[in-house]
Amino acid sequence: MMSLQASSNLTACLALVVLTYSHHALAETTNDQANTAQSTGICYAAEIMHGYKCQEYDVTTADGYILSLQRFPQGKTGGSNKQPVLLQHGVLVDGMTWLFNPANQSLALILADNGYDVWIANTRGTRYSRRHVSLDSSNPDYWDWTWDALVAHDLPATIDFVYEQTGQKLHYVGHSLGTLVALTSFSEGKHVDKVKSAALLSPIAYLNHMTTALGVLAARAFVGEITTIAGFAEFNPKGEPVANFLKVLCLDPQVNCLDLITALTGKNCCLNTTTVDLFLKNEPQSTATKNLVHLAQTIRDGRLAKYDYGSTDFNQKHYGDSQPPVYNLSNIPHDLPLFLSYGGQDSLSDVKDVEKLLDNLKLHDVDKINIQYIEDFAHSDFILGTTAKDIVYNQIMAFFKRH
Q: Which of 179, 182, 20, 19 is nearest to 90 (CA)?
């Protein structure tokens, strides 16, 4: 059974994202850029907001999901046939998160201006990746997946597509859940031969020490009950059922619902108010409720394993074993160049959990792993922070050049 503190942590995360949307996005939006991003697609928004050339692609996974993929083949200085870089966002957001800052502070555009061929992935279920070859997103079967499917299908399909389009191995950049998917995928040897290196920001693997400001309050709820009480397959933070279920948490007088990003991600040092407003008017995105239950299992069990179906019979049917298989991160090829950057104020990618991850990588070739610790950074600073270019992104590009 999941501990009270562990269940509170994940429930708090979900509640905060939902409540952030309820507090901000249900209000009338007057920001034309936000409206553009929501209604016309990521490339159109990027061209209008930043003036960069952008191309839209569709990628179909082996299990039939049609994913949206954006490409910035060049910066404003021109040029083509450059080194490809794939950017992968975290849970409950989409690829727009790489573009909310001004061009000189957004990683995607900084990379494009520095000669990289930039590709932005969008996970299944997010606003521009809601199609399937045979299922409508209103069908509960469409949402019958967890992050195991991102490891087995989404990431391999995206890497294959970029490799086929460019004819080159790619650099990978993941944030939050985008790091978990990469680490577990690499541990199973999936497409490592097509990846030159990986930069992992706010790396998520073990979640035992994850904390949030709403932890004590959210301990009254248990995320696993969402599926049994409400019975919905899609976890849609913008939908009334989820919002009604969770926004009651904001009624507690001890909770400051006006500063939910801090309560969720930690005390970010370097966020711009305009960028935060734009972020809140575009996010969060849907995911599968089953995906969040899987994350809850990761917290509960303190290990990285495939989805637990809750009974030995079901697990035996799916895995040929009574227990779900474990992802062994020590199996990541020791010569795969890795760059890991984490922050001392991060409530989601806690320092102790990152240290446990690093212990799994202790046999990695010493000249193939770079570790950056930033005391003042929290979870959102790595993507939205005004100082991220100088502190993190320049280090990533230097790392890419070495590998």
A: 179
Give the residue-averaged pLDDT of 90-101.
93
Total Cβ atoms within 10 A of residue 63: 16
DSSP letter for 346, please: B
Location of structure tokens 């009254």? 220
Q: From the CA atom positions of the chain, what is the Rg in Å?
A: 20
Least-confidence region, from 190-194, 209-213, 266-270, 333-337: 209-213
Q: Give the Cα separation of 65 and 58 in Å (integer).
A: 10
Average pLDDT, the chain: 84
- Confidence (pLDDT) at 356: 95
What's the rounded Cα separation, in Å, for the pair 76 and 72? 10
Q: What is the pLDDT of residues 3-21, one digit of tens each?
A: 444 444 444 444 434 433 4
Strand 83-88 and strand 116-121: the pairing is parallel
Catalytic residue positions, numbered: 176, 346, 379
Model confidence pLDDT, tens digit, residues 326-363: 999 999 999 999 999 999 998 888 899 999 999 999 99
The answer for residues whose C-beta is within 8 angstroms of residue 92's C-beta and 6 or more apart is 17, 237, 283, 284, 285, 287
Location of structure tokens 């990003």: 261
CA distance 293 to 371: 30
Q: How far apart are CA 89 and CA 119, in angstroms?
A: 12
Categorise residue 202: left if φ over 0, alpha if ψ from -120 to 50, beta otherwise. left
User: Going by DSSP bridges, is the β-strand pair 170-175/83-88 parallel, antiparallel, or unpaired?
Assistant: parallel
The residue type found at 333 is P
